[in-house]
Amino acid sequence: MLAIDECQELFSHDKYGKEAGALCTAIIKRGRALGVILLLATQRPDKDSLPPAISANVGTRFCLRVMGQIENDMILGTSMYRNGIRATSFTKSDKGIGYLVGAADDPQIVRGYYLDNPAADAICERARKARIDAGTLRGIAAGETPERREAVDPLLEDILAVVPADEAKPWNDVTVDRLAELRPEKYGPWGEMAPADKARQLTTALKPYGVTTGQVARRINGKTVNRTGFERAHIVTAIAERDRNRDAG
After folding, report:
1. Three-state secondary-structure class, residue 172
2. Of 14, 121, 131, 232, which sits most exposed with the smallest number of CB within 10 A?
């Protein structure tokens, strides 16, 4: 689980906000397949703290008392306020009470448990002991020193972050533009190249991973346009093979 409290501080950051939004969106879209659960919490629900791509794809939503329709719908979903699901109806005394959407067929009014620090410490200690007894605790939490590994080039993961799952065969130059926007400090020089050079640059960068490129045709304004591209599925396969080889080595 990846939990980010006060996520508005991350997503509204001048330097890292856009990249964080793109990466979190990628996790949300593929979280179940990746085995990652993303938990986002904010006291300031607006377009900066909850980018549209994130608020549109989150599956389970919980909203405590808010003051207006916009905040209500940003958390619970479009038209929820109009359909009578209104977290604005809660009062100051309704502590821990909110609307839960996505956990059942219909929205529910639920109440969270109040845990002070001593209770939280006791729960964590009990959970840790249970994992020790079950033999499922590993790494630093178990007092082990993790093995240092060579830094992994994030290119493949970055490509998955900027190419949605429903885009099976993206063009190289378009992907480079997205990469430059995602990580300008790393891919910015690529983004300044001519389209043909962008395509060649990405083709060269993908070769060490066994990912090949070729002509990808699309219909634009009634005409067939061919440009260099690749198959997104090959990126997924390359990541799996790279990680498998690294673990075996």
Report:
1. helix
2. 14
